[in-house]
Design a protein that fits this description.
Length: 162
Amino acid sequence: MKGGKRFLALMMRMFLLGTFLIVYLSEDESDMNGVEYFANQSTPKPPNLTIRLNEEKLTPILGTYSWSEEKESGSTSVEAEAEVPPVLTSDQEPFQVTADTSIVLDFEKQPETYSVRVWSQDSTIAGESKEVKLPEQGEIIYEIVGKWNEGTATYVFKLVAD
């Protein structure tokens, strides 16, 4: 009986390998071949966001997102989950701001809409608005939620006011 199970497992592996090779070798190689074809397939990602704080630039952490792209070869979609913003920013040094700091959200591609969430340290949403409101004093965690035709993405960063 033991030999029969081993034989069946070996046959299953050979079948899977054969199926993979058939699919792999039957890909349209008019522009690329073999490994190059698969290596050049990119995973869709949402646009980058840069936060301008006066003359300084801050790159937030990309959080949870759902993104789709249409290409000649077809549609590609990805769903990525991340921890809640207080956990994501736990190792991030907060950026120092003052009451007169100018904040500009510079999206690589402007979203149709976005909102700004403020998170408390106990991992609850403390508020939501349409703009980044500076804290009077202390540390604050922000989550920017952007929405495009291609999907939704969140970006997280931490500021501290003196």
